[in-house]
Amino acid sequence: MRVILKTRPREKPRIPIEAEEIIPQNFLRKNEITVFHGNKEKSLDDLFFVTIEGPAVSPDQVEVILTGDTGVIKRVGEYMNAGRIIIEGDIGMHCGNFMSAGEIIIQGNADAWLGREMRGGHILCEGNTGHYCAAGYRGEKRGMRGGMVEVKGNAGDFAAEYLSGGEVIIHGNCGDLPGVEMRGGTLVIGGDCARPCGNMTGGTCMVFGKASQFLPTFRANGSQEVEYAGKRYRMNLFRGDVANRGKGTLMVRA
Amino acid sequence: MAGILIKNAFVIDPLSGIKGEVMDIAIKNGKIVEEEPPGAEVIDAGGCLTLPGGIDSHSHVCGTKVNFGRYMSPEDMRAGRTARKGVMHVTSGYSVPTTFGNSYRYSTMGYTTILEGAMAPLEARHTHEEFNATPHQDMLANTLFDGNWSIMEAVREKDIARAAAVVAWVLAAAKGFAIKLTNPGGTEAWGWGEDVQSIHDPVPRFGVTPAEIISTMIRANEILNLPHSVHLHCNNLGVPGNYQTTLDTIDLAPDLNSKRQSLYLTHVQFHSYGGSTWRDICSKSEDITRAVNNRPQVVMDMGQIMFGRTTTMTADGPMEFKLYMLHHNKWSNHDVELETGSGIIPVYYGRKSLVNCVMWSIGLELALLTRNPWQCLLSTDSPNGAPFVKYPEIIALLMSRRFRENERRMIDPRTEHFVPLFAIERELDWYEIAVMTRAAQAKALGITCIGKGYMAPGAEADVAIFPIMPDKVDPSVDFQQVMAGFSRTRYTIKRGRVVARDGEVVVEGANSTIWTKAHVPDAYDMSLDPEFQKKFEQYYTVRMSNYPVQDVYLPRGVRIDTEAQL
Q1: pTM for this predicted structure
Q2: Fewer CB atoms inside 10 Å of the end CB: C or N, chain B?
Q3: How far is the alpha carbon of B354 from chain A, nearest alpha carbon, in Å?
Q4: 309-338 in B: which are within 8 Å (CB) of A?
């Protein structure tokens, strides 16, 4: 089944739409899907032109395509457990919260909290992403626990904060403090970043660009060769964060 | 107010000696009355279990440290969210909910009176403001005296009268209810990064021992004729092998009062550990309950832990620091000048952790091995052991051996080698549960004099009607029904008004705050004592005239007056 959701023109296009119900499994149910437009609950038809093509018997066969002015839509794919969502444009905050399986492809940029606390599945963002990509929410000590997030562009600050499982790959640059409080999983940064992995206790982080303002609480631990994007790089290894009795591995290109 | 008539209620009212009778209860002007008031609204209880309103004798629901627990745990605020509905405000939070969340949840469980376990006198205003936002329960505040410098000086001088005078002044100033000692001496020592290891260790820099503080305060309490006894959180909380300290403390308790206990020990589960390290921790509940069974002058509460996520918060700063060293999670420690301290840490009690399983068993053992239910009250030290919403589950565990056996299969299989729980066959009955959740609390807190905890004519009309038919439900088999029944009353009546119905709060509340004022002769009035005044102005960062909580903070205060024997 293919569901195409095209945003209708709105009088006030800046009002955010909260759409945690836009997940593939919901399109198999008969009852209506509602979304919030500001603080008003609306039916999906009020805000989108909905086209449904073909049948489906399980959520795996459902593909949701979002087009139009999608940059203000929040929480798309929250608790998604199967199927695929393709966003032909930008997407708002909290895309793919807590998702456990399935796939989200974002062809534009993603706003903050992309794939926060996700448990599994796959998110691909062709553009840039905002702060707190694949992080844990306020106060939560375990962020992303499984699955994979791949960002072709740059990420904001606090990427992969509290990462405890799964893989995060950011091909571009990261902002300040990527992988802070990491406790497991893998974080790969293709470009530059600042102050990586503060307070990390576990997991692996690789920085293939330049790591500026490197924290002094990491202990040098030899070097190693690693392959990234078809090339082999020699990496300096560090253990830490010593300040937090950490046993994580941080690699920076030599 | 036309009044209410509750018909066909299956009443258990231990303080009035009613052990399960089907009868009618008439309510007028917020009081239970003899005769049916004309034009009364009739509630047909249909044989359902009807008890006096629940009383929680130790819970942390209001005050600075509770609020700091809220600040610290935004993730906790993501749980337990409810939207505004009718008169109900928005609520959120699970282990440290918003004040309205606390109030509504207690109300739907039939609780009408709560004692806040620890209020630092200096920070009393905050506590009273939160009391006003907990509208469905009458509130009382235990006032912390464990590290009060004036008290420690009086103890050092062996001047019980002066200690009593300080207590009288501070209680009246902070509008507190009773004396709370939290790790006496230890919390103040923590101000210098130290702690005490036993009740006979001297407190560094003060030249007193915890034992002297406890004994002096018990006697000062009786001199002032306070309604409640000293409310004690023993030293060495949560340390393996601490049961010896607890036994020593129980030995200190004299029998000074014929109406109630002379010493109230709180969350004793945390103080009943044998062994010497976390690896060989075992239950010493048998020793503790043996001591308590032999001493009618001691009352304790369980401090049961339940598995799951919660937040610990106590005035016991050093203990919270030790807990932080174990968990390495976020933490807070706080010093209240010249008075006490506090600490807060979120924790998770897991079924996979042997230590947690042993702790869980000890709490239940305390309740099951204490012969007299009036001496062991039900509590979780909410939220330290578990949020209070777990009370129904604890009731079910105490009433059903089968439920305990079911749980046994879920917990760490090694647990049974460290605890006697699974050999205990006792199952509590409805009467004992009624005692442990309301009557004994009212008696222990000494608030029967203001009509709390019973339903005889003249009492406050606080009534809880649970959707449980005691003659049809066998609690040892139908523990699920017991749990469901105790978590949601059919009606909760507070001071003659139905406040909650079938799990929903139906009116805006109007609670009162109960506090005590002990009248002392002028010679013992601390506000006139030059030395006390001088030290106050010298050491406190507030002026003595600004220290007392103004009446405006207690719009519906209820004062219990006592006459001191000085």
Answers
A1: 0.91
A2: N
A3: 23
A4: 328-330
